[in-house]
Amino acid sequence: MNNNKTVSNIVSRSLFSFLQQHDVPAASIHHRTGISPYELTQSDIRISAAQHYRLMVMVEEKRELLFNDYQPDFVLTDIFRCWGTLSSLLTNSNTLRQGVANYLKYRSIIGQTDNIQVYENDSQLMLEYLNTGPEILSTSLASPLGNFIIMAEIIGHYDRKTYASIQVTLKGACASARQSQQLSSLLGFSCQMDGARNTLTFSKQHIDKPYEFYNHRLFETIQKAANSELNAIISNATSPLTLQIKNYLREHYQNPISHQPNPANEITLICQKMAIPRWTLQRKLLHEGQNFTELAQQTKMEEACRLLQQRNLTLSAISELLGFSSQAAFSRFFRNKMNVSPLRYRNGFPVYEKG
Question: Boundaries of each HTH araC/xylS-type domain copy (predicted)?
Answer without folding.
Answer: 243-348
